[in-house]
Amino acid sequence: MARPSQRQLRxxxxxxxxxxxxxxPEIKKEIESKREIVNEQLAKELQRALDYLxxxxxxxxxxxxxxxxxxxxxxxxxxxxxxxxxxxxxxLEMEDWHAGGNxxxxxxxxxxxxxxxxxxxxxxxxxxxxxxxYIDGIFCIGTSEETVSTIGIRTRFLKNxxxxxxxxxxxxxDIKNYRPSLDGIGYxxxxxxxxxxxxxxxxxxxxxxxxxxxxxxxxxxxxxxxxIEASQEGMSYVANIWKKYAQR
Length: 248
Fold this sequence. Notes:
Elements: H1 6-21, H2 24-35, H3 40-61, H4 65-92, E1 108-118, E2 124-131, E3 135-142, E4 150-157, H5 172-176, E5 185-193, E6 199-204, H6 209-228, H7 232-246
Antiparallel strand pairs: 1-2, 1-5, 2-3, 3-4, 5-6
Helix pairs in contact: 1-4, 2-3, 2-4, 3-4, 6-7
């Protein structure tokens, strides 16, 4: 079988970029529908994504599909990350990630959240929120390479459910010495409670024992959520995408 010529490869690339650029109106519609109902911080991130989309449209009008595609690919990860968080907050009927406060019907005593970003696959968002009378687990995943659509899965744990991640200990030197790989997976983690300071960590493709246990706690929590709710999309993401990176 003959190898494609340089001209054929360029045509394939152009066709690919044109097909991706056709999704801009749908992406803008999705972002704009959420921008007015999220908190101020998330609204700013969505506006940044819209600015990149406008830049992509301007390049497209000038016939520069290469730069248009570049701007589009800056907009989509930013929008996905923000919309995943927005969806989780909406499901929880919360405005932000602060513990405590008196506006919620059931006060938040503590929470943790994690953004999961595989190098070559769609991202996900995982959180566990401890209310005074119950515990909610949320797992949101990206569902389309072309657009920024997401789905959210929620379960309500029994009050005596053990949050294994809270029991994890972590050596902060593991974070300082971390060197990310280009084909791995990244995590952004935050824990917050009404009595403790906010803890924030970023790490990826864990190799040290404490970080591997941290990653395992994420996966076990997500597995609990998707299995309780019998979510095929969620179970497929954990088994076929997330674990593929975690087992490297």
